[in-house]
Amino acid sequence: MPVIAIDGPSGAGKSSVSKGIALRGGWGYLDTGALYRGSTWLALQAGVSAPEEVANLVVKSNLNFNLSASDPKLIANYPLEQESKTDISEIIREELITNAVSAFSAMPEVRRELLLLQRNFIEKSNAQFGGAVVEGRDIGTTVWPDAELKIYLTADVEARATRRQAQLSELSDVSASSVADSLAKRDAIDSMRAASPLRQSEDQIVLDATYLNLEETIQALWNLIEERKING
Ligand code: DC
């Protein structure tokens, strides 16, 4: 049951690469950033900011990620009292959430609950699809240290900002320099927090995608999978 952990800073292309690899291997896909974004959305909706209250809300709302690489969806039972299933896959990408998520993901209480949830999703993916491709910041270091392959996917901040700006420009008018500033800020908070920070570990393979396009990055990673006979 291979688990492939893909960590790295914002905008390095983790999502597109992880989905591509999951589709190629026929494995499930878990976007752990979506769970942190979902928790942030819940907290803002409910107007709670005390860490234990946010953690409690996360548990009660039963965040559910469907593990699909072709059509990933995040569903929350919110509002709580109505037992409703709300599809929050789109809304968690909004700038309001992007700007607030680092603060909520720095809360150890929130990380504690999401750690359990992430491990459950990986077990479910292994049972259902015979493996999982998991993207985040601390997958290889904390969430699944026994992963068969641990990748640190990175790129220069300018390359990451250009990519992110191209995605965002469909939605709004933003300059590359303001995108670079916000990426750098988020990386700094994600790397400096006390609880499970973004960091490179010795057993990770660093893949620098500054000069690679998406197909080339997927191929580079696939070569590693084949070399190590991870795909059976
Ligand atoms: O990958 P993303 O941009 O959607 O992630 C959103 C935020 O969630 C990111 O700023 C840091 C946090 N995160 C985290 O702390 N740990 C993870 N495993 C995944 C994401």
Structural write-up:
The protein has one domain (3-227): 3-Layer(aba) Sandwich (Rossmann fold). The chain is 51% helix and 13% strand. It has helices at 14-25, 32-46, 51-60, 95-105, 108-129, 139-143, 157-168, 176-192, 214-227, and strands at 3-7, 28-31, 64-65, 74-76, 86-87, 132-136, 149-154, 205-208. The strands form two sheets. The chain has a five-stranded parallel sheet. It has a three-stranded antiparallel sheet with strand order 3-4-5, with helices on one face. β3 (64-65) and β4 (74-76) form a beta hairpin. The protein is globular, with a radius of gyration of 17 Å. It binds 2'-deoxycytidine-5'-monophosphate (DC). 2'-deoxycytidine-5'-monophosphate (DC) binds at residues 10, 32-33, 36-37, 101-102, 105, 136-138, 186, 190.
Overall mean pLDDT score? Answer: 95
Strand/helix succession: EHEHHEEEHHEHEHHEH
**Strand residue content:** 5-15%
Indicate the percent of residues in helices.
40-55%
Please tell me what the overall shape is: globular
Based on the structure, what is the oligomeric state of the protein chains? single chain
Report the strand count. 8
The DSSP helix count reads 9
- At CATH level 3, the topology is Rossmann fold
**CATH level-1 class:** Alpha Beta
- Our count of domains comes out at 1
Strand order of the largest sheet: 2-6-1-7-8
* CATH homologous superfamily classification: P-loop containing nucleotide triphosphate hydrolases
